[in-house]
Amino acid sequence: MPHATQGADVATVEAAGAELDSALRGGPFHVALRAAIAARGLPLQRVQHHLSRYGVKVGVTSLSYWQQGARRPQRPESLRAVRALEEILQLPEESLIRLLAQADERSATQRPATRSYRSLVEATGVLERLLRELESTLDGGLHTLGHHERVRIGARRELAGRESHHIVRAHRDGVDRFVAVHHGDPGCAPERMTVHALENCRTGRVRWHHDTGVLVAEILFGTRLRSGDTFLFRYGVDDGTAGASREYVRGFGFAGGQYALQVHFDEETLPVGCHRFTQHSAAAPRSGRQELRLSGLHRSVHLVEPRVRSGIVGIGWDWE
Question: What string of DSSP letters covers 217-229?
Fold first, then answer.
């Protein structure tokens, strides 16, 4: 009798392993995650505990939703958790991330002018590595009270550059820098971009990744803030390295203060129409579309979010 039970246990383990191998090859993500957790025999509370040892905070409810397919990991912190899960569950590197980043063909058809979900997930992974090189995090010890961003579209319809004016408040002592992130249009060359410190700051180390078009730069304050201190600074990025630009998006991992985005077009090349939009995440459908009137005098359109929420907001335009 014990031998029969032992044989059944071995068969169960082998079946779980076969199911996991199949799920890792073909997905989808939630099936592979569920199979991996089952194959390791870990309750979700233990998975959460292991994640906390990696410095990643994810609730048991979120883990449950992920393995049911009710939600997908989308925020930078969630993608960090997925990479940690690959180690915790003894999976091949990038196996879960690869499944998570597989392109949704229908979404790509609906949004031909936008970056794919795969490219955004890949860019998030690259961003994490670049931030580690600068010994920084997305939060950086600062809360944003206000952010005014001005984007310039050049005569070749390219993203010529942008300028950002920040008002921040430190939520811990000793903060002396901000890490600026620029994600150029497809085909850009971040190694040819230039970062300029414009007011109350200077430029520190700059890192980039060519394939994803991600650039990060230290914006140094020249002073150490105490918790509760506010600070104002302004910097710019000269781009102009890609082809025709069709939209500008800004992602927010955390809720914050006011955000204003202005897109200014060259007088020789004006779009035929402009609109604003929002997304809960890179994988979610776009919503909140609203037509924007192009100012003939100033050749610009803008949007204002009085208080941003986590997610994506942007302005898109059509050339013809």
Answer: EEEEEEEEEPTT-
